[in-house]
Design brief:
The chain has about 400 residues and is mostly helical. It has helices at about 5-15, 20-35, 40-45, 55-70, 70-80, 85-105, 105-140, 145-175, 175-200, 215-220, 220-240, 245-255, 260-280, 285-310, 315-345, 355-380, 385-400. Helix content is about 80%, strand content about 0%. The chain starts with a helix and ends in an 8-residue tail after the last helix.
Length: about 400
C-alpha cells in the first residue's frame, strides 16, 4: 500500500466509532481464515477426493448457497436476537466445519463440511454487515461523510484478509490440505475469543423485532428484488475466481501455482484503490450508475479471456488474459459491492435491515448455486475455449438491465 493510501485509511478509521472499528476488523479476520482455505478447495476436491468437474462446481455452488442462500436466516435472527449471539454461534460452526473438512475423504463428508462452513457464515456475516450498514447510515446522518466510504473501508478490510489468507494457505499447502483447514479453524478460534470479550451485549439504537411479518413486504418490493438479482449476477461472475480462473491458469501455466499471485493482485488492488475509487465515483455517479459501470467492466474482463482463448498461448504470455480478467473483475467489484450495500438501507423495511441484507445475499446464493453447476458443466463440455467465457460475459452484461431505475 502506498503511503498516501495508508494515511487515508488511517484518517478514515480514526473518525469512526469503536464499534465500527471492531466490525471492520472483524471482516479482516473473517477473510483471513476463509481465504486461507477456499482458493485451494477446487483442486483438493478434483485431485485428492477425485470428484468430477460438474460435482466440483456443484459443491462450490452448494458452499455459496449454504452461505449466501441462508443469509436471510442469519439476518432475521440478528434482527430478533441481536448481533453478539449470532456472531458467536457462527464462529463456533465455522471452527467445526473447517476441522471436519480437513478430515473429510469422501463426497458425503465433504458436502456435510461444506454445508456447515457455509451456514456458519450465514449466521455471522449478515449480522456484521447489517450493523455496519446501520452504523454507516448513522455516521452519514451525523455529518461524518458518505455511507459508501464506510462500506468501502469495510470492503478494503475484507480484501486485506483475502490477500493474507491465500498466502497463508499456499504456505501451509506444502504440508497438506488438512493443515490449511486447521489453520483456518485456528483463526476463527481467535475471532471467537476476541468477540466474546469485545462485542457489546446490546448495541444502542438497535431495536429487536419479531421474525414474522417481514418476508411478505420484502417479496413485494420489486426494486429491492431487482437489486438482489443484479447483485447475484455479480456474485456469480466473482465466483469464477474459484472455478473458471483456476481452469484457465492450469491451461496457461500447466499448474495452479500462479493462482495465489492473481488472488494477491486482486486484493492489493482493492486495498490500495478502493477508497480513492469510491471517493471519485461518489462525487460523479449515482448508486445505479456505479453498479452499471462495474457490471460492464466485469463483462469486459470475461471478454478479454474469450478473445485470447483461441490463440492457445501458454507460459507467462498466456497468463496475461487471466491477469486482465482479474484486474477488470476487481475494479468492477470496487464499483458494485459498496454501492449495493449502500443502496439496501434505502429499500429496506424499518427495523429489518438484517433481513434485507441477508436477502440480498440469499437471492445471490440461489443464482450462484444454479450458475456454478452450469459453469462446471460448461467448462467440462469440450466446447471451444472461448465459449464458456462468452457465456459468462453475458451474465453481468444482462444484469445491468435488472437494476432499479430509481434511487
Amino acid at each position: 500500500m502506498t503511503a498516501p493510501s495508508t494515511v487515508r485509511v488511517t484518517r478514515e478509521r480514526v473518525r469512526l466509532s469503536p464499534l465500527l472499528r471492531l466490525l471492520i476488523l472483524t471482516q479482516l479476520a473473517f477473510n483471513i481464515g476463509f481465504f486461507a482455505v477456499l482458493p485451494f478447495l477446487a483442486e483438493h476436491l478434483g485431485g485428492a477426493v477425485g470428484m468430477a468437474g460438474w460435482m466440483v462446481g456443484f459443491v462450490l455452488g452448494l458452499r455459496t448457497f449454504s452461505q449466501q442462500g441462508l443469509f436471510v436466516v442469519g439476518g432475521a435472527l440478528a434482527d430478533r436476537y441481536g448481533v453478539r449471539p449470532v456472531v458467536l454461534a457462527g464462529c463456533v460452526l465455522r471452527i467445526a466445519g473447517f476441522g471436519w473438512l480437513g478430515y473429510a475423504g469422501s463426497a458425503p463428508a465433504v458436502v456435510g463440511a461444506v454445508l456447515l462452513t457455509g451456514f456458519a457464515a450465514a449466521l455471522f456475516s449478515p449480522a456484521v454487515e447489517s450493523e455496519v450498514a446501520r452504523q454507516a447510515v448513522a455516521w452519514e446522518d451525523s455529518g461524518g461523510g458518505s455511507r459508501t466510504r464506510v462500506l468501502a473501508l469495510f470492503t478494503v478490510a475484507g480484501q486485506a484478509g483475502a490477500f493474507v489468507g491465500p498466502l497463508l494457505g499456499a504456505l501451509l499447502l506444502s504440508v497438506d490440505f488438512r493443515a490449511v483447514c486447521l489453520a483456518g479453524a485456528g483463526v476463527f478460534v481467535l475471532v471467537l475469543a476476541g468477540h466474546a470479550w469485545l462485542l457489546p451485549q446490546h448495541i444502542p439504537g438497535r431495536v429487536r423485532v419479531q421474525v414474522r411479518g417481514g418476508i411478505g413486504p420484502l417479496l413485494r418490493n420489486r426494486r429491492f428484488l431487482g437489486l438482489c438479482c443484479a447483485y447475484g449476477a455479480y456474485l456469480l461472475a466473482y465466483n469464477q475466481l474459484y472455478l473458471a480462473l483456476p481452469a484457465e491458469v492450469e491451461r496457461a501455466a500447466g499448474s495452479q501455482a500462479p493462482l495465489a499471485w492473481l488472488f494477491a493482485l486482486s486484493s492489493l488492488l482493492v486495498v490500495t484503490a478502493q477508497l480513492p475509487v469510491t471517493r471519485w465515483v461518489g462525487e460523479r455517479l449515482t448508486l445505479r450508475r456505479s453498479m452499471a459501470a462495474g457490471l460492464t467492466l466485469i463483462a469486459t474482463g470475461f471478454g478479454v479471456v474469450a478473445v485470447a482463448a483461441p490463440s492457445g498461448v501458454t507460459g507467462v504470455t498466456g497468463l496475461l488474459p487471466a491477469a486482465g480478467f482479474v484486474v477488470l473483475l476487481t475494479i468492477g467489484q470496487m464499483l458494485v459491492a459498496p454501492a449495493a450495500r449502500a443502496w439496501v438501507p434505502d429499500l429496506a423495511q424499518e427495523g429489518r435491515l438484517g433481513l434485507y441484507m441477508g436477502a440480498l445475499s440469499s437471492v445471490s446464493g440461489v443464482i450462484v448455486l444454479i450458475g456454478s453447476a452450469g459453469t462446471g458443466t460448461l467448462l467440462d463440455s469440450g466446447l471451444p475455449a472461448a465459449v464458456p467465457w462468452i457465456v459468462l460475459a453475458l451474465v453481468p452484461a444482462g444484469a445491468v438491465l435488472l437494476l432499479p431505475r430509481r434511487g
